[in-house]
Amino acid sequence: MASRASIGGHPVHPMIIPFPIALWVFSLVADVIYLWRGNPIWKDYIAFYTLLGGTIGAAAAAVPGVIDWLSLKDPKVVKIANWHARLNVIALLIFASGFYLRTTSGAGLVGGTHSIPIALSVLGVVLITISGWLGGEMVFKHGVAVDHQPVADAKTD
């Protein structure tokens, strides 16, 4: 089943998702480096802005994901896609909450502590890992967003 959200026959959702995943994971890595080294640039700039970029990127990746989700027909695949979507929405909300708690207005809600935003990032990374596995299940086992049209063989001389 080819993706309805595609460019040149290539599905858009899998092209976009590596960016928010990498940014969110690197945000957590930056937090760990901050805890290890104590340099606030890792917490106040690197983790903060990679978390923001990941959240914006995930919201952008959701658009072609929803388009693909609406075109699913197989009940078994729909069930997997529903869990994939639920986990992604929850993760997006968790990362957005963690980002807000890092802002000056949100930090007051947690008494300025950094442990709750870090815990939210850990939880979010666990959720996107499970969700990514489900996404792979849909693509590699069920052929979601895979165009099964035969490709012309290259001529050999």
Written account of the structure:
The chain contains 6 helices and 2 strands, in the order ββαααααα. By secondary structure, the chain is mainly alpha-helical. A two-stranded antiparallel sheet has the order 1-2. β1 and β2 (10-11) form a beta hairpin. α2 (18-37) packs antiparallel against α6 (115-142), α3 packs antiparallel against α4 and α4 runs antiparallel to α6 (115-142). The mean pLDDT is 90.
Short summary:
This protein has 157 residues and is mainly alpha-helical.
Question: How are the elements arranged and paired?
Answer:
Blueprint: E1 6-7, E2 10-11, H1 13-16, H2 18-37, H3 40-70, H4 75-102, H5 104-107, H6 115-142
Helix pairs in contact: 2-3, 2-6, 3-4, 4-6
Shape: elongated
Low-pLDDT parts are none
User: In percent, how much strand structure appears in the residues?
Assistant: under 5%
How many beta-strand segments?
A: 2
* Helix fraction bin: over 70%
* Helical run tally: 6
In N-to-C order, the SSE pattern is: EEHHHHHH
Structural descriptors:
mainly alpha, two-stranded antiparallel ribbon, 6 helices, 3% strand
